[in-house]
Amino acid sequence: MLTPSSNTVNYPRLIASTNNHGCPMYSHPSQFTPLMPSDAAFSRLEDEARQVVAQSYALTQAAHPTSLSQIRRLVRSMNSYYSNLIEGQSTHPANIDRALRKDFSDNPDVAKKQRIALAHIEAEKALEDNVDARDHPFSVKVIKACHANIYERLPDEDKRDHGTTIGAGQFRQANVQVGRHVAPSFESLNSFLAAWELQYNRAWTDAQRLVVAPLAHHRLAWVHPFIDGNGRAARLQTHLALLPITQGLWSVNRGLARSLNKENGYYSAMAYADQLRQGDYDGRGNLSERALVNWAQVFISTCKDQVEFQQKMLDLDSMKSRIKVLVSLCSAQIKNIREEAFLPVYHLFAAGPLARSEFAKMTGLGERSARYLISALLKEEIIASQAHNAPLQFNLPLKHLHILLPNLYPEANTTNFDG
Q1: Parallel, antiparallel, or unpaired: how do β-strands 176-178 and 13-14 relate?
Q2: What per-residue confidence (pLDDT) applies to 305?
Q3: Residues of the chain with confidence (pLDDT) below 70
Q4: What pLDDT does residue 1 have?
Q5: Which CATH number, 3.30.43.10, 1.10.3290.10, 1.10.10.10, 1.10.3720.10, labels domain 13-314?
C-alpha cells in the first residue's frame, strides 16, 4: 500500500510469516471484510455516482467520433504517464511520444522508463480489445491479464527491481510488507482472490459499477497478489471496469496522481482504508467500513472532477476559440499556414474528416495556396491523414496541447530534463 506522509513509493520487502506486531499474518478472507459497505452507505455512494455517469455519457456527443478517437489516444498516454508517476517511474510525456514512434533515449534509465510507459499503453489497448469490460472486469483472470500484459512486453532487465524478478501475471511466492501494511500470506492468495471475485464480479448498473470499482481497487491492493506491479495492475483493472462509463475519454489516473499530496488524496485515503474496525459503529467486518466508504467517496469525487474538467475542454464553443488561436499563432510563425485554415480545421473536430478537395474549398483559397496550406498543416501535425489520398482528420499533437486542451496534460508543456 501507499504511505500518506510520503511522496515516494514503498516497495515490498520480504518478511517472515508474522506481521509487524509479531502476530500471525492474514490468512483468511474474513480478515479483509467488509468488501461492501452497508446498504445505506452504498445507496448514498450510488446517488453520487449517477451524476458522474450522466456527465460522462454526454462526452460521447462532444465531437465527431474520429476526433474522440484522438482524445482516446491521448488519454491512453496520459493513463500510462500518471500511473507510472504514482509508481515513481514516470518519464516526460515527450519521451512517451518518442517511444510510440520507436525512438528511445540513449540514456539507459530514460529508455527503461520509456519501455515501461509503452508497455502500459500497449497493454491497455490490447486489454480494451480483448476483455469484455461490461461483463468480466472484476475477475481473477482479468487481474492476471492486466499484470501479464504489462510485464510480458518488457525485456528481462526491466523486470528486475530491488533484486526481485517480476513474473508476468504470476502471483507472489513470498510474504511481503509494503510500508506498514503486511499483506496476506502467499499461501492464502487464492482464497482471498476467490472471495474478491465472488463479491465484485457481478452484473452492475453503471452507477453501481462506479461505486464498486474503488472498493475492489482497495481490496485488491490490500491483498497485494504480485511481488511487484500491483498498483499498475490494479489501476489497469479499474480502467477496464470503468470503460463502459469513461469510454476512454477521461483519465482516472490523472485525478489520482494529482491528489497525491492532498490530505485526503490517493495515498492517504488508500492507507486509511487499511485500518482495522474502529468500534461498534464502524461496520461488522475486520477492517474499517468508515474508512472504506471514505476512500470510495474520494474516488467518486475524483472522477467527478475529471469528467467536469473534460467537459470544459471539449465544449464546442471553447474548442472553436482555441483552434482559432492556434491557427492564428501558427499563421504568424510558420510559412504557408494561413488563418483561412481555421474553419475547415474546426470542421474536422466537430463534424469529421474531409477530402482534401473539400478542405481546400472551405478555405476559399486558390488551388496552389490551399495545397501549400494543407501540406504545412500536416507537417505541423494540426491535421493528419492515413495516406496521401486519404481524408484529412483532426489531430492533437503534444506540442500544441497547451493551446487546444490547456491544463489537461500540463506536464507535456514543461521542459524535458529527462533527455
Answers
A1: antiparallel
A2: 97
A3: 1-24, 161-162, 419
A4: 40
A5: 1.10.3290.10
